[in-house]
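Issue: ligand-bound run for flavin-adenine dinucleotide - logging full I/O for the record.

Environment: standard queue, default settings, no custom constraints.

Inputs:
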Amino acid sequence: MVWQKNSHCVKSMGDLSAQENKLSGFKGKIILNEPLRKHTTFKIGGPAKYFIVPFDLPELICALDFASLNKIPFLVIGAGSNLLVSDKGIDGVVVKLSSDSFKKILFKDTVLEVGSGCLLSTLINEAVQNGLSFLEFLTGIPGTVGGALVMNAGIPGKSISDLIEDVTVMDYNGKVKVLRRADIEFGYRQSSLSDCIVLSANLKCVRRDAIEIKSRIKAYLDARKNSQELNLPSAGCVFKNSSIGPAGRLIDSCGLKGKMIGSARVSEKHANFIVNTGYAKAEDVFTLMKLIIKDVENKFNVTLEPEIKIWE
Ligand code: FAD
Ligand code: EPU
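Outputs:
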């Protein structure tokens, strides 16, 4: 068993003794009081009481049983690129599907079977090497396949749901099933997959010349570099675009670029990005979000809805 202690967890080993049986013989990692700021692109977030990286599916089921037996929350984190985690952290289990078992990519002609823990950047690179196209619009999105499916990640007019043939999921009772595209509801930055644990997906691509694919990737990257703040920690766009226009334009029109609370700042480059300029706390970001919502409501009579997931 690999109980990885860190400096905050002196008392936790005692807590565990009664529960160790459930996780005995674990080949993956179990870290006590792991700071989630190490696992979010915002670099914000308090500790997860049990941070578990299961080695394989049976260990994932063990982690789920462990949470259910102890009646504590069970959450899955991808690359943490759309997450704001509270400063007090998560008094429960946070699972990261980053071991090899959950990152496999299998080529089946033009269909790619990919594990949910695989990074989109890795998937895109592998697809290019094999002359497979369709994923290029996901270039620059710093998430995993699982997070992208749950969030239905994309850009205006295109989203990952366009590529899906089916998705293999596990429900919170540990039952694995294959959902066809038609069985899943997808919307703007949301999907019904948020009710389960995503394990893998079959994505349909098309064949294209590798040079052409690379030039499409470059165009997407250049557009992103020109408009988005990529040099400081963030979670991308904080709010969904509204019915009356892009959130970034509305926030910008309120004169909020550069507005700071603690170390959290509205990006000067893209007003729908909040950046962590140093040691921002989740509380700073919440306060800044509330201020943005209020100013946009006062000026445009529309309430911005957060795009990022908030773990409190
Ligand atoms: P996380 O942030 O870790 O999690 C997001 C949600 O998915 C959480 O609710 C989590 O519990 C759930 N989840 C993750 N994995 C699983 C799983 N295997 N099973 C069940 N639930 C799971 N998004 C876009 O759509 N388009 C963009 O252009 C874009 N640009 C971005 C640019 C930057 C610089 C940044 C920082 C973010 C950007 N994002 C964008 C947001 C983010 O990258 C995407 O939403 C991404 O898909 C999130 O994936 P993740 O693995 O990081 O998920
Ligand atoms: N704008 C401003 N001021 C700003 C920012 C934007 O006036 O500070 C204006 C732009 O000039 C443009 C319009 O707002 O006319 C839209 O801006 P942009 O083209 O940057 O696109 P967006 O709607 O802000 C969306 C996604 C991004 C995605 C890009 C790809 C949402 C909330 N955002 O941004 O996704 O990368 O399109 O073009 O849907 C994310 O979801 O995290 C994300 C970054």
